[in-house]
């Protein structure tokens, strides 16, 4: 069956099939995920058949073109399995594909989006540097004109899928030092371009199977056609163009992971007996489970409410609500994970149980696509803006 066609014509059936894949294939195979190898091809292929690389890409380029509500439902479903599976395609559907779709020339869209939509190509978004993290305007990677093209020099770090990416969306400074966001441009750099190299895969606290690495540019020569949108100084705009999609997808991931953690903790609490009865019947354990349920439900309600109101570009109020959802959901899932470990006790601390791995995995969500502190800043600024506007 053509699952691309099914997603467009009968989303509910498509979603049920995706949920079945999660339960029968993805969750049982989680122990196969590793830092070096990433998601094995035989597990990535069914994700490609479901069209997950093309969630946000229009049909004319071969994508699913799902609206945001359906994107969120799909993302929650797939992230009941390890969030590492999502990392395999998230760098494509979020910032990279959105940057090209919203800002690319017609030729760039026609060249790259069809390859990305099917999963034939994987992209990586190369923004973060040693001195440019939360303040992305501080990037130091430079792109200087050379004839009809550019030469890139610099280094990026924490780049997800760097070791397997076919295409890098790279932010580099074309303006003078101190020019801030106005001096940043975006470039589309294909793997194998001379002067582009990738460092060793990082060793991380969690997210085994979602490789990250440094990307180095040393005299990396690209043609003028690699300048995204064909206009200099639009790189920061390009980078931020897809940030709201990416942040909402992270919030969805937090909900999916919380639902999985809660299910694992509940199952254990119903089976484990102490003092003559299942521990779920002890009020202290039941209260922890209730807190998990209430917070997960609240986060899901926030995500879906924002998804239904999502537009591009989002109104200032919705942008602040997206930050609310990302902030609350990422903090929430860490609390749920901590309670899950507590409910399982010593068993939850052992690497032989998935709770230990999930506990480490979810800690990342309070950091990437804007830390919790950045989300608080966005929320507060939105409140001030609304107050001044008399809202």
Number of strands: 9
Topology-level CATH name of the largest domain: Butyryl-CoA Dehydrogenase, subunit A, domain 3
State the helical fraction.
40-55%
What portion of residues belong to β-strands?
5-15%
**Biggest sheet architecture:** 4 strands, antiparallel
Number of domains: 3
Structural class assignment: alpha+beta
Instruction: Quote the average pLDDT.
Output: 95
Order of helices and strands: HHHHHHEEEEEEEHHEEHHHHH
As residue ranges, the low-confidence spans are: none
Under CATH, the homologous superfamily of the largest domain reads Butyryl-CoA Dehydrogenase, subunit A, domain 3
- Compute the separation of the termini in Å: 49 Å
CATH architecture of the largest domain: Up-down Bundle
Rg of Cα set: 21 Å
Explain this structure to me?
The chain has 391 residues and is an alpha+beta fold. The chain folds into 3 domains: 3-121, Acyl-CoA dehydrogenase/oxidase, N-terminal domain (Butyryl-Coa Dehydrogenase, subunit A, domain 1); 124-233, Butyryl-CoA Dehydrogenase, subunit A, domain 2; 242-388, Butyryl-CoA Dehydrogenase, subunit A, domain 3 (Up-down Bundle). The protein is built from 13 helices and 9 strands. The strands form 3 sheets. The protein has a 4-stranded antiparallel beta sheet with strand order 2-3-7-6, covered by helices on one side. A 3-stranded mixed beta sheet has the order 1-4-5. Strand 8 (273-274) and strand 9 (277-278) form a beta hairpin. The longest helix has 29 residues, at 243-271. It is globular, with a radius of gyration of 21 Å.
């Amino acid at each position: 069956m053509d699952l691309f066609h099914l997603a467009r014509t009968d989303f509910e059936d498509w979603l049920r099939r995706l949920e079945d894949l999660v339960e029968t294939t993805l969750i049982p195979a989680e122990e196969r995920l590793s830092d070096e190898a990433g998601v094995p091809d035989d597990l990535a292929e069914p994700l490609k058949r479901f069209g997950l690389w093309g969630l946000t890409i229009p049909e004319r380029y071969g994508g699913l073109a799902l609206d945001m509500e359906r994107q969120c439902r799909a993302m929650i479903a797939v992230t009941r399995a390890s969030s590492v599976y999502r990392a395999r395609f998230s760098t494509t559907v979020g910032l990279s594909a959105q940057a090209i779709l919203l800002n690319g020339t017609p030729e760039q869209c026609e060249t790259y989006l069809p390859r990305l939509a099917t999963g034939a190509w994987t992209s990586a978004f190369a923004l973060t540097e040693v001195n440019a993290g939360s303040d992305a305007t501080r990037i130091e990677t430079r792109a200087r004109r050379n004839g009809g093209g550019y030469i890139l020099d610099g280094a990026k770090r924490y780049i997800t899928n760097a070791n397997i990416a076919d295409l890098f969306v790279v932010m580099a400074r074309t303006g003078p030092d101190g020019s801030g966001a106005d001096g940043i441009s975006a470039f589309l750099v294909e793997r194998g371009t001379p002067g582009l190299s990738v460092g060793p895969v990082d060793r991380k606290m969690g997210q085994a199977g979602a490789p990250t690495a440094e990307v180095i540019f040393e005299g990396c020569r690209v043609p003028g056609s690699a300048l995204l949108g064909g206009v200099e100084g639009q790189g920061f705009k390009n980078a931020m163009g897809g940030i709201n999609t990416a942040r909402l997808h992270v919030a969805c991931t937090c909900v999916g992971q919380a639902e999985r953690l809660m299910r694992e903790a509940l199952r254990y609490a119903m089976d484990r007996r102490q003092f003559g009865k299942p521990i779920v019947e002890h009020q202290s354990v039941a209260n922890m489970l209730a807190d998990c349920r209430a917070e997960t439900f609240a986060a899901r309600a926030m995500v879906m409410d924002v998804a239904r109101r999502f537009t591009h570009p989002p109104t200032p109020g919705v942008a602040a609500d997206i930050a609310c959802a990302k902030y609350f959901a990422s903090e929430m899932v860490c609390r749920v994970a901590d309670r899950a470990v507590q409910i399982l006790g010593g068993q939850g601390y052992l690497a032989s149980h998935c709770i230990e791995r999930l506990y480490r995995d979810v800690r990342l969500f309070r950091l990437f696509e804007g830390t919790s502190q950045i989300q608080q800043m966005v929320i507060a600024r939105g409140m001030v803006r609304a107050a001044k506007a008399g809202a």
